[in-house]
Amino acid sequence: MTNSALTKAVEQFANLTQSISDIQLERAWAWQSYDEEGIRFAFFRTYEELRELAAKIRSERIARDRAPSAAQIILAGYAVAFWDLQAALIGLENDRIDQAPAENEWSVRKIFEHIIDAEVWFYVAIRYALDGHRSGDGRPPKITRVVRAGTSGIDEAAFRSMIEGPLEGLRHFHQTFHERVLREFADITDAELELPTEYWEKELMSIRFRLHRFDSHMRQHTIQLDKTTTAIQQLTTETKRLLRLIYAALADVNGALIGAWTMDENRRLELAQSISARAKEIAGLVA
Question: What is residue 2's predicted lDDT score, i.e. its pLDDT?
Fold first, then answer.
């Protein structure tokens, strides 16, 4: 889903519009009878269309007796958190990601590194427990660095190189990994949600807890990232706030599709084409 036409269209919309000033938002743009709210209404129209699509997908899933499972509902929350983080990073330049707001506080890179590293561990804990349960191989609960590498399939040296590289590389890795989590864990059953997993805690935690942790942990550090970017004077404009709404609506669509990956493909493609054309139109108006 992170590589879908719809996702790419929304990202193109963000790339072409992120620098629009508050004054430029007042420039004329009309949709049907809505002709007095300026360019900002194009953002709300995009937001509305994405929300409408998400609602239709959910309604159709219920009508077809394909309502999402408990695991899929939890993963949808993770998708919302993921895209909110992506929105929070819009417009952030590479020369700012290593700038700490104060002594002993984390830079954007450090925050992002922590989020990604933790999610790899969450994935490994769940994947290892699921595979052990499904195979019945009697594997020991302890997860080591060797187990992490084998379960995740991630080369640690390459991982470290990526972490130390440009922001675009971190974002690409995170998007790919996010997609992997959604697809691999969408088939977790209600019974499997109660399986114990091992990580750093003294107690064994259920898969249910661990899936929710993808969401809550990212929320925790997105708040930290917001504080950090404000402190290093990456100010939030009205346009960036509008884009954050659009990313939330995209997350709503992607969350609705978990476990029903091919649903409404034509409708999604049509909306992608519409958003892409609108982005180019707006970019032309403010050029």
Answer: 67
